[in-house]
Amino acid sequence: MRAAKSIHASYEFLGLAGSGQYGQVYCARQRRTGQIVALKELPHGRFPTHALLRELRVLLMLNHPHVTRCEALEHAQEGRYLVLEYCEGGTLRDWLEQGSPLPLKQVLAWIRQILLGLDHAHTAGVIHCDVKPENILLHLSESGWQMKLTDFGIARVYRSPITDLSMTGSAAYMAPERFYGQFSPAVDIYAVGVMLYEMILGSRPFSGSPGQLMHDHLNRRVVLAPELPAVVRAIVQKALEKLPARRYGSAALMLKDLDAILPQLEEPLACWVGPLLPRGSLHLQATFSLPTRPEVVVGWQDACWWAQRSQLWRTDPHTEQSTLMLALDYPLRHLIPVGTGLLLVSDHHLDYWLPDHPLIPLRAFRDPWRWQCCGNNVVWATQREYGVIHFASSASPFSGRSFYHQTFPRSLPQPPLIWLQDQTLTLGIPRQGTLELYQQPVTPWQPLNWQQSALWTLPLCPRSSIPLETGAILVPRDPQAELLLLHTHPLRLRRLDLPSPWQGIIAVGKYIHVVTQTHHLLTWTTDGDGYTQTLLPQPYLSFDPQGSLWLASAAASGTQLWQIRLGDDPK
Asked: Using 50, 70 and 90 to split pLDDT, how confident is the model at 396?
């Protein structure tokens, strides 16, 4: 009998994606095809053979866009693994813990997808028996986010009456009859009702210990909170009926009621609400007047540096005296402190300037281009080439810079996304509605090997990217759309929902800050958690890379400028 080979011979492990009751789930790449998959570890001790065969049988019975797809079963030296479709968006629980409110129409659209998956399973004779946010995965497709049912480890096939007195499952989402060992499609409907309640209100109808939950599900009637929108109250109430006969008889019937109310939910933006912090929570660092409204501002060397068209000005915040420092032939778009000087960015030029020294041209661009400043490095890319400029920490006018670049094998339709983190360069190449991500170390400089396949391929074409310590923020072309938080190893996408179109975005330390057109400052951690919303006291002007938020209001004698220091902690 041939010995089983190592799982690593067939799959490249890219990181731990999650863990559950029975084992761990890894993100991996199939070496033969390059396909990204999820490897679900199935230890003998916690997942005996009969349980393995049951889950495998159930998965092979199902084939639906809203159910995770089973690719194979692998027997290896390290153990047994189910090879499943990989869902890079994490779980619905991850989103609930993020704390961002979501419009009711979006919540119902997601519940609708879950019901479609359940309707397919029920039609095939499968009861999931453990529907909960932890078992709903998010997958990004060309049409948007897809909800996918996963973990059929305790599912039942109900071709004949079922009675099972085992208490496996999650008490918070268990229908009353589950505690008596009775199973039918109605138990999944009840769990969906609990999830719908939780997604809208942020809490479940019952809470407490498993014993308390059992008592409440069996004996306490659900009292719908007054905050629950009237349009969905009847649906939630029917899904949470104690007696199965009073619940929806099938997922299809609940779908029918949802479809009847969805056209009514054309919500204005003002319906979106969230935690609101008082103005007093903002830390005002300075206020002063400028002779005119600036277009870009940065705090540097204990002064305010700002640009108005092609002119660079310096304002002393104590005396409010403004001095013209530099006049160019083209308008300035960004001012970035690097080393002991300022990086000056315009539509077609990348220059470096140190006070009291002549301007140092770095690059001139005829084609469209993208750039990022990452520490003491500037990375740039056009449709034809990309490169890195490294500044020594003690940069002088005549030394301390290193230039590297590479030409693409063929011209691209648009400049790629580009960023640098931990001396690893990431390029995002747009190709026919998808984004191919490549990574390569830059210390020492190593041009990308274009013979290798892309590290990831994502079904989106972002407008831009903002680097983070562990990934990047992908900014969509539509300013109203969500932001996407990208982490690699393992691949993970988290959505950051916006109440209204954004005006500015910055990552400072461990936090992401976004200003919207409704004058709100939204803050998340770089993991996508810790959401807060703050109403700004003045109109937004810009962020600067030093970690300041600049607000500006027109005054009789010019422009009143507010500098708010963000730092690592928004509170």
From this structure: low
To the nearest 10°, report the CA torsion of 239, 241, 247, 251: 20
Mean pLDDT of 285-310: 89
Catalytic residue among 94, 119, 130, 188: 130
Q: What are phi and psi of 514, to 5 degrees?
A: -135, 135
Report CA dihedral (525, 528, 533, 538) to the nearest 10 degrees.
70
Whether residue 367 lies in the annotated active site: no
Identify the CA nearest to 178 among candidates 235, 127, 117, 111.
127
pLDDT: which is higher, 488 or 364 = 364
CA distance linking residue 423 with residue 440, whole number of Å: 9
Averaged pLDDT, 349-373: 91
Report the distance separating Cα 435 and Cα 458, nearest Å: 5
Q: Which amino acid is at 466?
A: I
Q: Which CATH number applies to 92-267: 1.10.150.20, 2.60.40.180, 2.40.128.590, 1.10.510.10?
A: 1.10.510.10
Residue 117 parent element (H or E): helix 104-123
What is the band of 268 on the pLDDT scale with cuts at 50, 70, 90? very low
Are the C-beta atoms of 154 and 130 separated by less than 8 Å?
yes
- CATH 2.130.10.10 in the chain: give the residue spans: 279-565
Q: Are 492 and 549 in contact (CB under 8 A)?
A: no
pLDDT, tens digit (0-9, with 9 covering 90-100), for 217-245: 999 988 888 888 889 999 999 999 999 99
Query: According to the model, what pLDDT value does residue 282 have?
Result: 64
